Amino acid sequence: MGSASPGLSGVPPSRLLLPPDTVLWTGLEKVAVGAGATGPERWDWSPSPPATPEQGLSTVYLSYFDMLYSEDSSWVAKGPGASTREEPPDEPEQCPVIDSQAPGGSLDLAPGGLTLEEHSLEQVQSMVVGEVLKDIETACKLLNITADPVDWSPGNVQKWLLWTEHQYRLPSVGKAFQELGGKELCAMSEEQFRQRSPLGGDVLHAHLDIWKSASTSEESWTDSEVDSSCSGQPIHLWQFLKELLLKPHSYGRFIRWLNKEKGIFKIEDSAQVARLWGIRKNRPAMNYDKLSRSIRQYYKKGIIRKPDISQRLVYQFVHPI
DNA sequence: GACTAGGAATCTA
DNA sequence: TAGATTCCTAGTC
């Protein structure tokens, strides 16, 4: 799941030639964390709203390619996060760094008549759009909400707000949007967002816009990998933990495998894992004390246990597969 | 202080 | 009703 649809990734490279003052809005907040580090790979790019709300996801994200393409023809991710990256990521596929410096700088033709640079551009474009959709998909799973904001209940809206505030370090605005359902939220203008939340309203509106764009242009992406959290079934804690573990690029700094084959994992940031679980279950008072109690309930059921060599914050799935 | 372990009552889908 | 949450005491690191 999460792969970009042809409709999103198949945008002609000419679309990349945006006005020089086009703002960058990636919707991603990814802070780079190197190999061996406990954190997830995240590129912390300063969010700016889309140039216009009508811009689709692809157009919005293509602004970033334009920036990459225009600067020194150097295919290195730029932005605040990129400049602070100290080590290469441990998952190369997550890092769209492509060397387009063909020998002699010639514009060789790739299959299909595209220049190599255009070909690379499409690859990068496809990867970034895929990453955007993955991020939304992950949030959708963890929050147990649909991809389409229009369908959100007031409770879903609050979950999404909590999540977005957490992910993008925005001030808490939940109360300002109380009682609003997804339909009402989607109908609100950026100005109305600002009125309700002067500090982060514009950012929230931009994020919502990305969700709207993603759900309208990629309607089937959430169906490609149906799991417990998207099927309407209440998710179990052990499932939730596995979901986090399966997204090391997003949650590796919170929880990670020590030995995937044996199902041994370590909770690196107990407070954050508990917080995510609380958001997922709509339990704002959740903490690690309670979460760990739930984990211990699995001891009797043979789902999770402590490893043979017990370590703090280290647990083991009894059935790793 | 943070984590571990488990009992018990309560809540919730 | 099962699973999760909440609160608690006691012990370990």
TrEMBL record:
Report domain ETS positions: 235-318
The family database entries (InterPro entries) matched by this protein are listed as: Ets_dom, ETS_fam, Pointed_dom, SAM/pointed_sf, WH-like_DNA-bd_sf, WH_DNA-bd_sf
Where would I find the PNT domain in this sequence?
Answer: 131-215
**SUPFAM superfamilies, per database record:** SAM/Pointed domain, Winged helix' DNA-binding domain
Protein name according to UniProt: SAM pointed domain-containing Ets transcription factor
Recorded source organism is Lipotes vexillifer
Q: Does the keyword Cytoplasm apply?
A: no
The job of this chain, per UniProt, is described as: May function as an androgen-independent transactivator of the prostate-specific antigen (PSA) promoter. Binds to 5'-GGAT-3' DNA sequences. May play a role in the regulation of the prostate gland and/or prostate cancer development. Acts as a transcriptional activator for SERPINB5 promoter.
Gene Ontology cellular-component terms for this entry are: nucleus
- Keyword DNA-binding set for record: yes
Where is this protein found?
Nucleus
